[in-house]
Amino acid sequence: MSKKQLIVIGNGMVGHHFLEQFVATEAASGYELQVFGEEPLLAYDRVHLSEYFDQATHADLAMGTAEWYEQNDIMLHLDEAVTGIDRDQQTVTTAKGSHPYDAVVLATGSYPFVPPIDGNDHPHCLVYRTLADLDAIRTSAEGARTGVVVGGGLLGLEAANALKSLGLEAHVVEFAPRLMPVQLDADGGAVLKHKIEELGVRVHTEKATKAIVAGSECRLRMEFEEDDYLETDLIVFSAGIRPQDALARAANLEVGERGGIIIDNQCTTSDPRIFAIGECALWSERIFGLVAPGYTMARTLASHLNGDAEAAFSGADMSTKLKLLGVDVGSIGDAHGQTPGARSIRFNDEAAGHYRRMVISEDGKTLLGAILVGDNGPYDTLLQYALNNIALPEHPETLILPQSEGGAPALGPDALPDTAAICSCHNVTKGDICGVIDAGCGDLGSVKAETKASSGCGGCAALLKNVVDSELAKRGVEVSKDICEHFAYSRQELFHLVKVNGIRTFRTLIREHGKGQGCEICKPTVGSILATCWNEHILATDHVPLQDTNDTFMANMQKNGTYSIVPRIPGGEITPDKLIVLGEVAKEYDLYTKITGGQRVDLFGATLSQLPEIWEKLIAAGFETGHAYGKSLRTVKSCVGNTWCRYGVQDSVAMAIFLEDRYKGLRAPHKVKMAVSGCTRECAEAQSKDIGVIATENGWNLYVCGNGGMRPRHADLFATDLNDEELIRTIDRVLMFYVRTADRLQRTSVWMENLEGGLDYLKQVVLEDSLGLGEELEEHMEGLVGTYQCEWKTAVEDPEKRKRFREFVNDERTDPVQQWTHERGQRRPVTESA
Amino acid sequence: MKVTTQWDVVCKVADLVPDSGVAVWTSSGPVAVFYLPERLPALFAIGHQDPFSGANVLARGITGDIKGEPVVASPLYKQHFSLLSGQCLEDESVRVPVYRVLVDGDQIRVEQRLGSRDELAA
Ligand code: SRM
Ligand SMILES: Cc1cc2nc3c(=O)[nH]c(=O)nc-3n(C[C@H](O)[C@H](O)[C@H](O)COP(=O)(O)OP(=O)(O)OC[C@H]3O[C@@H](n4cnc5c(N)ncnc54)[C@H](O)[C@@H]3O)c2cc1C
Ligand code: SF4
Ligand code: FES
User: Fold this and answer.
1) With the C-alpha atoms ordered A588, A594, A596, A599, is the resulting torsion angle positive or negative?
2) Chain centroid to CA A813: how far?
3) Burial readout A621-656 (b: 16 or more C-beta within 10 A, e: otherwise)
4) DSSP state of A662
5) According to CATH, what is the number of the domain B4-114?
6) How far apart are alpha carbons A771 and A524 in whole angstroms?
7) Where is pLDDT greater, at A785 or B78?
8) Chain B nearest-CA residue for A814
9) Peptide bond into B37 cis (omega under 30)
10) In 10 A of CB A449, how many CB atoms?
11) What is the pLDDT of residues A147-200, one digit of tens each?
12) What is the pLDDT of residue A243?
């Protein structure tokens, strides 16, 4: 029997998801599958489109791979739009030919609506939907100073952020009286507007554009109905989306009055051989402009084609949780209180910029909807109340009042019914999670892999972790916090013991509070704690055996047993004389020389016995240790700043050097990296650092808890427009609180994510001093700054310490196994393949 | 075959570092000598070469105990080696040589087996 032909039109998020679901069904073997995509690139994650402006590439955003399509025998035609559907002949046509079908799935998505304004076809009038659009925006932004986004909805604000990140002065022009009119009410919109203006984006509401004409200062001038105007170099239209239903219209399928291909609960259009899913589909007179409902349609259709008579789409929750320009915005269910009898509870903290509204049913028992601006903390809890009709507490307002005013604790995962949707993107319920745990998933990672939960928009990550942790705990899987078999304490508890009891050596600590002799886990941990408490030299006799080998020899051991040398080059600034010394030393000892990713120079291949001699020379030339070996401050990266750069608004180099000098040598649970950029162009990549500082017209914006490395994390905006003094005080507190409370080998990013209460809690502790610890943290830091010593300087001056650097204590010979070869003019170890 | 041994002087007591190791050069190559003052006996000697990387580095590892057994963790890839048997705790098939070691006045001596050293090791 020959196979049936199934053709999918549109290779976007939903079309791709449909294929993933469908190939896993039994029915799939009866079909030959073909996909036509208008875009030249394989389906990609449009939800995270804006990351393309950060550093993501198409490959990072891609939903699948060409190999996956091949392995599943799906014929993929990219850059080939379908131009017509002939329902009588049952063929679809493209510029290259026509193809017979038995079934067609329309997954054509939507297109940006461009309002009919004179001049909207100017080459610098753009939209924000595809990677190609973003390329066009980037090109247009070259040589531009100002950019305007028309439309203050969710996508418009995202586009404004993108313009800002491209270095433009960004404006948002909105027709309605407030931002995000669909999701927010007037008060919420006002709070959002205020916050966004604070971030440097100009917001103009109640403005209708009449015409776009040539500008006098900029490329374009927007003339408003109100008889005023705004000049700009480029315009991005983000005034809503329209379902891409052109093919369906031409083929005389039923479409809605305002567009959208009409489907029933099985995603079938008015032609039983043609289906529609995703943003192009109109169900029950509604279009769903979010990815989760599209995925649900895709799953429904896959099951339907597989013969599942029960499969039916029954609408979808349109709640959204977003971070727009760093500002939290959440909208749940009936946010505007349109249900008859509904009443609202509002909380508005103008100083903090927090707005919260709960919409409650007439009988006061259930939550119908909510609006959050400024802080999404209560979102997960509120969403669960709304989705699962959980009975509200007696004083429902406690759900949105700040904790200090008697707020209710978050709804624990135990209170959720099994049917509670945890991840709406992948339709994973609490019951599903319990199921895979019972089937053997023993940690968060395997639950994610098994259920796909949290691999869509990611909004459910925190809730998922809570559910998994609580379910594992119920099954007796102990998540032990003991650092190792020698101490029944967490790192934080050990820190406390050391500090409070004034313990100064590992031996005392293990005798009094532990057992055995210790190991490579507890020894360096305690070594680091002792260093942050008392700041004695790490090679003091009592401390030597505690250090990881890199700390013991104050250099990083390489694979052949030799070491690397990284002198500190604060802020990346170096005099020519110092550069010459580095070159001379490297030459004398035949050291492989490389510029690091941290704006300094690494010299590789020194033997143990050469280390003190080399450092003696470097110290004489004014260098200090760079602590490249320590779990401590590494580098403070800097851009060139306003001394030279035409865009700089503060002296980023001076600030970076100041910070590096202040925090150098600070021992921490893991390494700490910082950066300072001279303006929002962010050439120092501060938002990927543990501590990131970005200059503003008025001072500095502080970002915290970013991470590059294995699991990159963008830093969170922590405080804005700080002066020098405020900046230092805030960093002192954040760092010291981290040093005291983090687990071993926990970067600030993971620490913050695991901190109960997260960023908000950290803000309370640091900015509002909620624990009354502020001064103590600052004093502790001040003490460390005051007792800093260059470890290498002390070591080379002390004959006893120098003795440690003998390769063999009884023989002058050097290590016999090191073999060298040369490559690109430098010496390097022989590797197996060479 | 008769096995003869000889006790090489390898270093002074003062060269040792409490709770840590030093490397010495012996007639059979590099050896790591550890001094754990809290234990009895307190001296241990094993091969200095890390079998996983081929680098001579074991004396630079962190010492400690795992379930009571004295060990050193390789500074490169962190496998544990028993200071008593030379056995790698993570990989049954890997073992480093072990040497007897003693204090003689202010000197440390390590036993070197001559003649059938290889057979003994096998
Ligand atoms: C030399 C350098 C690579 C280079 O040639 O550019 C380097 C080299 C090493 N990195 Fe790195 N990292 C270097 C910049 C980075 C950066 C980029 C940066 O700092 O801007 C990152 C990502 C940013 C970040 O950390 O957030 C980076 C993320 C890592 C990680 C992953 C950390 C994480 O949180 O995921 C490790 C592993 C670890 O720390 O556990 C690591 C570990 C290492 C170690 C220490 C591995 C080891 O234990 O032997 C390497 C030894 C260096 C040596 O022998 O001197 N290195 N490493 C860079 C030194 C910068 C400096 O001047 O100090
Ligand atoms: C910047 C941005 C941010 C967003 N953020 C979020 C968010 O935070 N949360 C959320 O839930 N949603 C978000 N969305 C919306 C989300 O991306 C969409 O809901 C989702 O992409 C819809 O998937 P789809 O497959 O229906 O449409 P699309 O992903 O648009 O795919 C449709 C594809 O069909 C192709 N096509 C159209 N016509 C034809 C034809 N005739 N022949 C061949 N191919 C054709 C198109 O070129 C396109 O590639 C965002 C969207 C954007 C643009
Ligand atoms: S970040 Fe620094 S170097 Fe980059 S543009 Fe701004 S001031 Fe100039
Ligand atoms: S809700 Fe989007 S990933 Fe889970």
Assistant:
1) positive
2) 51
3) bebbbbbbbbbbbbbbbbbbbbeeeeebbbbbbbbb
4) H
5) 2.102.10.10
6) 29
7) A785
8) B25
9) no
10) 13
11) 999 999 888 999 999 999 899 999 999 999 999 988 889 999 999 999 899 888
12) 97
Pocket test residue of A13, A319, A425 for ligand 4, highest count of atoms within 8 A of CB: A425
Distance from CA of A805 to the nearest CA of B (A): 10
Mind listing the pLDDT tens digit for each residue in A22-53?
A: 999 999 999 999 999 999 999 999 988 988 98
**CB atoms B11 and A809 under 8 Å:** yes
Mutate to test the pocket of ligand 2, among A242, A244, A291 (most ligand atoms within 8 A of CB): A291
For residue B15, list chain A residues with Cβ-Cβ distance below 8 A: 803, 809-810
Positive or negative CA dihedral for A289, A293, A298, A300?
negative
Distance, in Å, from the CA atom of A116 to the CA atom of A105, rounded to the nearest integer, reads 31
Q: Which of B10, B11, B13, B19 to mutate to test the interface with A (most CBs of A within 10 A)?
A: B19
Count the neighbouring beta carbons within 10 Å of the beta carbon of residue B41.
Answer: 11
CA–CA separation, A245 vs A107, rounded Å?
10
Q: What is the C-alpha to C-alpha distance for residues A442 and A439, in angstroms, rounded to an integer? A: 9
Residues of chain A with pLDDT under 70: 1, 402-412, 456-459, 478-481, 832-834
Tokens of A471: 């379910």
Query: Under a CB-based contact definition with an 8 Å cutoff, are residues A192 and A327 in contact?
Result: yes
What is the token pair recorded at B62? 């962190």
Whether A603 and A586 have beta carbons less than 8 Å apart is answered as yes
**Ligand 3 site, CB within 6 A:** A 639-641, 645, 647-648, 652, 677-679, 681-683
pLDDT of amino acid B2: 57
Say how many Å lie between the CA of residue A525 and the centre of ligand 1. Answer: 20
CB-CB neighbors (< 8 A) of A813 in chain B: 25
Nearest to A245 by CA among A224, A259, A257, A235: A259
Cross-chain Cβ contact A561/B57 below 8 Å = yes
Domains and CATH numbers, chain A: 4-110+243-305 (3.50.50.60), 114-239 (3.50.50.60), 320-406 (3.30.390.30), 413-474 (1.10.10.1100), 548-630+798-834 (3.30.70), 631-788 (3.30.413.10)
Buried b (16+ CB within 10 A) or exposed e, A202-227: ebbbebebeebeebeebbbbbbbeee
Interchain proximity A516–B65, CB inside 8 Å: yes
Helix (H), strand (E) at residue A115: none
Encode burial over A470-492: b for 16+ CB neighbours within 10 A, e otherwise.
ebbeeeeeeeeeebbbbbebbbb
| pLDDT given for residue A405 in this prediction | 41
A410 and A467 Cβ atoms separated by less than 8 Å: no
DSSP string, A17-68: HHHHHHHTSSGGGGEEEEEE-SSSS--B-GGGTTHHHHT--HHHHBSS-HHH
- Asked if B30's CB is within 8 angstroms of A523's CB, the reply is no
Q: What residues of A are in contact with residue B58 (Cβ under 8 Å)?
A: none
Distance in Å, CA A60 to ligand 3 centroid? 26
Q: Inter-chain contact B64–A816, Cβ cutoff 8 Å?
A: no
Are the beta carbons of A11 and A39 closer than 8 angstroms? yes
Identify the DSSP state of A341. Answer: T
Q: In the predicted model, is pLDDT for residue B78 greater than 70?
A: yes
Q: Give the residue among B18, B10, B13, B53 at the shortest CA–CA distance from B34.
A: B18
Binary contact (A548, B78; C-beta < 8 A): no
Contact A50/A158 with Cβ under 8 angstroms?
A: yes
Structure ipTM: 0.68
Residues of chain B in Cβ contact (below 8 Å) with chain A:
10-11, 15, 17-20, 22-25, 29-30, 36, 38-39, 49, 53-57, 60-68, 70-71, 73, 75-76, 78
